[in-house]
Amino acid sequence: MKKIMISTLAAVTLLSGAFSASAQGTNGKEAPIEHSIKSEDALVNLPKTTGEYKVGSTTYDWVDTSRIDLLDPKNKRELKVQVWYPSDKASNKGKKKEPYLPMTEKGINQIISTFSFGDLFADVNDINTQVYKDGRLSNKKNKYPVVLFSHGLGVSNWNYQWMTRELASHGFIVVSIDHSHFSFGTEFQDGRFMPIASQFLPGNAIPQLDEYDDYVNNIWVKDIQFVIQQLGTLNKKDKKFKNKLDLKNIAAVGHSMGGAAAARALQVEPKIKSAINIDGSFIGFTETETMTKPFALIKTEMSEMFLTGKAEQPLPEGLDSQTEQELREMFKVYNNRYEQVVTGPAYDITIYGGAIHNSFTDMPLLRPYLSGTMYDSDSIFPANPEPIYELSNQVIVDFLEKTLNGKKNTILDRRNVNIPNLKIVQ
């Protein structure tokens, strides 16, 4: 495989917009905003899933009592996790649909206010997610492989349902982590709201190499490892998932900074079998440790142009010459790391057709709910993302089928793949 690095500045500085997925309505707290959840009332529809299963979803709040929260030193590290999993229509008769944003009105308003999403965004739960809230796990298989998902910096775990729902429909249990302080905001089940840390708001800071390495290694990767521990408990005690999680077949997938965390977790965590970095840089890597397990890198045409020298990595306006030089040197470091570290089976995958960094989130779909705001722009959220979702899901599903389920003759095994807007190099 050609050794490359995805050096999108968006991976560490661009906030593309999202909601944290969380469960409310218990212990006397505010219930989720009630909407009709009818397709005909929604401004948009999510893509229909293509796998054999229907999809259920549930959420957990977990506290890692062994860790101090480095961004909130007075408290232990606490996470919100949403799980999408295979389910069956027949076993969910009468079950409610999972709201797109299962959060209280207060929590939604805090996010809208912080990021100037506009009033229309409060109606996002008109969308029919096609997902059963707390639905029953399908019993078609004895166990299901697990996919750990990490969102991008400033994007929340709810914002990738183009993929999380799709993977669940194909028989994967997707455990999506909301990395507290790094997302648009996390609302826990007792009503507490944890906002994004101020240093990650647009324009508040220029990334520093050592600082971001620390974030990935000492927070994001440890979040992933903690969730793996919690899954062991679920597999022993949880009513829904008891003995159903195939913890010998775990993959890590992430976008942007979450992609960096997924790749680094593959490098250091023995229980993770394979990983996908979606348009992310290689923050947190060290040159002294190799990554020998199956790995895929999915990138955009724009990123490919940066890597081949056909275009120069854009930087924010108004930087002094020293800061510009430091950022460019930082990107070179990431590139050198990847050159030295990746020694195992790896796939270089490029998605063309107008894909940009934000195409790998739900936000292009949700653009009608951002009408009249600063986010209503082709440069931020391009129109018609569904062909990009379709291509991306095709390679992601096949990579996971190959590395977790041992499937042969996947799209990754074919020597001459002739699919428009897709390039795969091994």
UniProtKB/TrEMBL annotation:
Domain of life from the UniProt record: Bacteria
Keyword set, alphabetical order: Hydrolase, Lipid degradation, Lipid metabolism, Signal
Signal sequence residues: 1-23
A Pfam entry, by short name: PAF-AH_p_II
UniProt name for this protein: Alpha/beta fold hydrolase
Gene3D superfamilies attached to this UniProt entry: alpha/beta hydrolase
InterPro entries for the chain: AB_hydrolase_fold (IPR029058)
Organism lineage: Bacteria, Bacillati, Bacillota, Bacilli, Bacillales
GO molecular-function terms, A-Z: hydrolase activity
